[in-house]
Each structure stands twice: as C-alpha cells, then as structure tokens.
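Q: How would the structure tokens look for this protein?
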Amino acid sequence: LNSYQQVKKYCLHVTNELTKHHTEVDGEDGAVIDVSALSKAALAKLADAGDAMHLIGASLGGYGFFGEEMEYYKEALRLKELSCQGNIDKSVSASDTLHCM
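A: Here is the predicted structure in token form.
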C-alpha cells in the first residue's frame, strides 16, 4: 500500500503546484480553485492525475482494498471535475470513474 500512497502523494503535489496561484480559501468548505484561470496544459495535467488516481483505485479494488479504492475514486473524480472546468456531464473519463464507484 505504501507504493500506492506515494503515487497519490505525487499526484496531489502536482495538483497543488498547478493550482496554488488560483486557489482561494472559502470559509466553510476550504479551498476553492478557479479553474478558469488555468491553462489548457495545466487542465490536461489535472486530467492525467485524475486518470492515474482512477487506475490506482481500480488496482486496489482488485486486491480487495475496497475502502481505499473508493478513496482514490473520489479523488480521481475531483481532479477530473477540475480538468473539465466543472462540466462533468461532458466528461467520458469522469463517467468511467462514477461508473466504477
């Protein structure tokens, strides 16, 4: 599980680096990311990170770690939603993650 956690940590680090200048703190919900200011390249990297988190979740589920699988799917869905600027209903990749959940 440690290897999976290291990949997750790296994906979240990449996400933080891409969004750190576009994040505002909301009083109750925490950080809110203004994705409209992100470049297309940054959005593509967020999508890649979301895909990686999805695949890790699927792998964990294959080994019987179902709680961790859902945790990774939730994070994958969050990243994929960011990458499509909130238009999640138009994202085939996000629908794949929702289907797996």
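Residues 40-62 form the longest helix (23 residues).

The first strand starts at residue 23 and ends at 26.

Upvote if useful.
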